[in-house]
Design a protein that fits this description.
Elements (H helix, E strand, L loop, with lengths): L11 E5 L6 E6 L6 H8 L3 H7 L12 E4 L4 E4 L6 H7 L4 H7 L12 E4 L7 E3 L8 E3 H15 L4 H16 L7 H5 L2 E2 L2 E2 L2 H5 L8 H11 L10 E3 L14 E5 L2 E4 L1
Antiparallel strand pairs: 1-2, 2-3, 4-5, 6-7, 8-9, 10-12, 11-12
InterPro entries: Cell_wall_hydrolase_SleB, LysM, LysM_dom_sf, SleB_dom1
GO molecular function: hydrolase activity; lytic endotransglycosylase activity
Organism: Thermincola potens (strain JR)
Length: about 260
């Protein structure tokens, strides 16, 4: 089925909220957006966006206007300006400037307002709910989402969350490495532990559902009852993993400790 992408014009303006200390940028959500992508683009943690907008979940919808508590600014295009010169002036990439303004070409005109993204921060957040003495970066969230998508793209939301929970359970265990990246790329006897790393499917773009599952796993949600392993009994050839105590069967996967 052919995927149809609808591009909406992004409205990004500087605003001040009466009666509060908030002064930041407003972002109009487009089709295909999610909080993770917006936070990466605007240089702000997704939890800060949730707090600024009183969001109880990460669910957003096209046309919704979000307050972004960032250092972004608005630039008014002057005669003789080009996108390339503006990008170079503010030390950002041309693609980044076009992306944050929802542009599919480089045409600009005097008087036009362009959003200039704030300086990207090293955005990290604690692994809440798993009592892990570490921090999880936005890059870790993306990597986890890609693994979830590759391993469980045929599963429902609970099945996707379960795969993510296994990684977070490993992060909390002293039997495994101390970062999500090291866990996902860990090898046993020279072989990657996760098939998507071996066959390259981990490099696929994660779905919205996979990103949501990654975020929920980091928040501490775990439908697996603390599982550290999972496998598909129809395809797995590992006899050892079948000897482990089973905690749950979710969709096509068996979860075990």
């Amino acid at each position: 089925m052919r995927r149809i992408t609808v591009l909406l014009i992004v409205t990004l303006i500087m605003v001040t909220v009466t009666g509060s200390a908030y002064a930041g940028t407003s972002y109009k959500v487009r089709f295909g957006d999610n909080l993770y992508k917006i936070s990466r683009l605007m240089g702000v943690n997704h939890q800060e966006i949730m707090a600024a907008n009183d969001l109880g979940t990460t669910v957003i919808y096209p046309g919704q206007v979000l307050k972004i508590p960032s250092q972004s600014r608005v630039y008014e295009v002057k005669k003789g300006d080009t996108l390339f010169r503006i990008a170079r002036k503010y030390k950002i990439s041309l693609n980044e400037l076009m992306s944050v303004n929802g542009m599919n070409n480089t045409l600009i005109f005097p008087g036009q307002n362009l959003i200039i993204p704030g300086k990207k921060r090293n955005m990290t957040e604690p692994a809440m709910g798993n009592k892990v003495n570490t921090y999880i970066s936005q890059e870790d969230i993306e990597l986890l989402a890609r693994l979830i998508h590759a391993e469980a793209r045929g599963e429902d939301d609970i099945g996707k969350l379960a795969v993510g929970a296994v990684i977070l359970n490993r992060l909390a265990s002293d039997r495994f490495p101390d970062s999500i990246r090291e866990i996902i790329y860990q090898k046993t006897n020279g072989v990657y532990q996760f098939t998507p790393v071996s066959n390259g499917t981990i490099n696929m773009e994660p779905s919205e559902a996979a990103i949501k599952a990654a975020q929920e796993a980091i928040e501490g949600k775990d439908p697996t009852s603390g599982a550290l392993f999972f496998y598909n009994p129809k395809t797995s050839t590992d006899n050892w993993i079948r000897t482990l105590p089973v905690t749950r069967v979710i969709g096509n996967h068996v979860f075990a400790k």
